[in-house]
């Protein structure tokens, strides 16, 4: 029976830990996995533009011995041309898996129901599971563990926040989510994370007060405007600027490292000097997108 990866919310802590260990093994011994996708083709269907997601999947699949076919729905004029379920069913006739970067989680659900091959969520409005795995691969490389650490996410509660909470809860990492009023993560996503945290002893804290980030090991932020949100920056800058991650906040909280899923906007949600500092894990996160995604594809397509 095929398995999709639309979210990690339905995974167990044991399964999440095994996938993380697989990602570490693939990164450390790439030649051992150089043919794991030999003879397999993966379609990457993108409704939204991308740098890290597209390149990391393309090169990563090649390193596993597979072949990627990239479809830009806008450039190829595929959007609206036929029903989503028909598109997915057709792609499944040729491809061994479908990687989809879409606007709506509902699109992924339709793909899942229509395609007889695994569907991987490369980003949607609710989740960003590939980023979440890459983030915790980065954290375990830096700290040697995830259990008992604290990540403080500061900024807009969005799809990245949701997956950061979910994967962190599965791995026993405490989560502090600090947002301006009105920008908290979705309640049902918080509920999912809390349910998982009960299994591992992790805590989930929601706040609007930066003082609650004190004692965190890592500060994490994302852009204030998600891709596709056309709200003028000037309208939200005054709301979010007090939540900027900068050197003063690092000193105040005692955090040793800073993370950002990118693209980053220098001197808005994070200072450029902090991005370029020794505390920054941004490029390690970016590299680990490939290794995490390779672990996902290896698991889904080879059963490892």
Automatic annotation (TrEMBL):
Q: Which reaction does it catalyse?
A: carbamoyl phosphate + L-ornithine = L-citrulline + phosphate + H(+)
InterPro entries per the UniProt record, alphabetical: Asp/Orn_carbamoyltranf_P-bd, Asp/Orn_carbamoylTrfase, Asp/Orn_carbamoylTrfase_sf, Asp_carbamoyltransf_Asp/Orn-bd, Orn/put_carbamltrans
Q: Which domain of life is it from?
A: Bacteria
According to its UniProt entry, one GO biological process term is:
citrulline biosynthetic process
Could you tell me which residue ranges the Aspartate/ornithine carbamoyltransferase carbamoyl-P binding domain spans?
4-141
Q: Where is the Aspartate/ornithine carbamoyltransferase Asp/Orn-binding domain?
A: 147-299
The UniProt GO MF terms for this protein read: amino acid binding; ornithine carbamoyltransferase activity
Pfam families per the record? OTCace, OTCace_N
Q: In the Enzyme Commission scheme, what number(s) does this protein have?
A: 2.1.3.3
Protein name in UniProt: Ornithine carbamoyltransferase
Tell me if Nucleus is a UniProt keyword of this record. Answer: no
Keywords assigned by UniProt? Transferase
Keyword hit for Transferase: yes
Q: Which SUPFAM superfamilies match?
A: Aspartate/ornithine carbamoyltransferase (SSF53671)
Q: Which EC class does it fall in?
A: transferase
The family line of this record is: Belongs to the aspartate/ornithine carbamoyltransferase superfamily. OTCase family.
């Amino acid at each position: 029976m095929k398995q999709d990866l639309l979210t990690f919310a339905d995974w167990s802590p044991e399964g999440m830990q095994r996938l993380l260990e697989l990602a570490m093994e693939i990164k450390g011994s790439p030649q051992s996995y150089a043919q794991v996708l030999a003879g397999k083709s993966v379609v990457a269907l993108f409704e939204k533009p991308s740098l890290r997601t597209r390149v990391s999947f393309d090169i990563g699949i090649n390193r596993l011995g597979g072949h990627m076919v990239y479809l830009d729905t806008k450039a190829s004029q595929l959007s609206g041309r036929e029903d989503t379920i028909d598109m997915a069913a057709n792609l499944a006739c040729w491809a061994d898996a479908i990687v989809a970067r879409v606007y709506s989680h509902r699109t992924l659900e339709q793909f899942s129901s229509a395609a007889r091959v695994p569907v991987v969520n490369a980003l949607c409005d609710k989740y960003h599971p590939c980023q979440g795995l890459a983030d915790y691969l980065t954290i375990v490389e830096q700290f040697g563990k995830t259990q008992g650490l604290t990540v403080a996410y500061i900024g807009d509660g969005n799809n990245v926040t949701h997956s950061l909470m979910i994967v962190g809860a599965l791995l026993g990492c405490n989560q502090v989510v600090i947002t301006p009023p009105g920008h908290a993560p979705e309640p049902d996503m918080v509920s999912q994370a809390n349910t998982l945290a009960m299994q591992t002893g992790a805590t989930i804290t929601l706040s609007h007060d930066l003082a609650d980030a004190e004692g965190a090991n890592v500060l994490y932020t994302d852009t204030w405007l998600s891709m596709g949100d056309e709200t003028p920056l000037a309208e939200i800058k005054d709301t979010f600027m007090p939540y900027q991650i900068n050197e003063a906040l690092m000193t105040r909280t005692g955090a040793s490292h800073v993370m950002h899923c990118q693209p980053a906007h220098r001197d808005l949600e994070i200072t450029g000097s902090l991005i370029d500092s020794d505390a920054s894990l941004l490029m390690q996160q970016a590299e680990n997108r490939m290794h995490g995604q390779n672990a996902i594809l290896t698991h889904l397509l080879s059963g490892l």
